[in-house]
Amino acid sequence: MIIRSVTRSALCGTVALATGLLVLLPAPSPAAARARTEPVPPAAGPTGGADRALLYEPGTRVRPAPGAPSLPGDVSALSWLVADAVTGDVLAARDAHRRLPPASTLKTLFAVTALPHLSEHARHTVTEDDLAGIGEGSSLVGVIPGQSYKVADLWRGVFLSSGNDAVRVLAAMNGGWDSTVTQMREKARRLGALDTHVVSPDGYDEPGQVSSAYDLAVFGRTGLASAEFVRYSSTAEAQFPGDKGTYGIQNTNRLLSGAGGVERYPGLIGVKNGYTSRAGNTLIAAARRGDRTLLVTVMNPQSGASQAVYEEARSLLDWGFDAAGQVTPVGSLRPAPVNRVASPRAAAKAVRDGARSRPEGRADGDRGPRTERRDQTGAEETGGAEGADGVASGVVGEPMSGAIGGAHGPQARTDGDETGSGGRESGTAAGGSGASYLMPTLVIGAAALAATALFVVRAARRRPGRR
Question: Taking the model in full, what pTM does it have?
Answer without folding.
Answer: 0.68
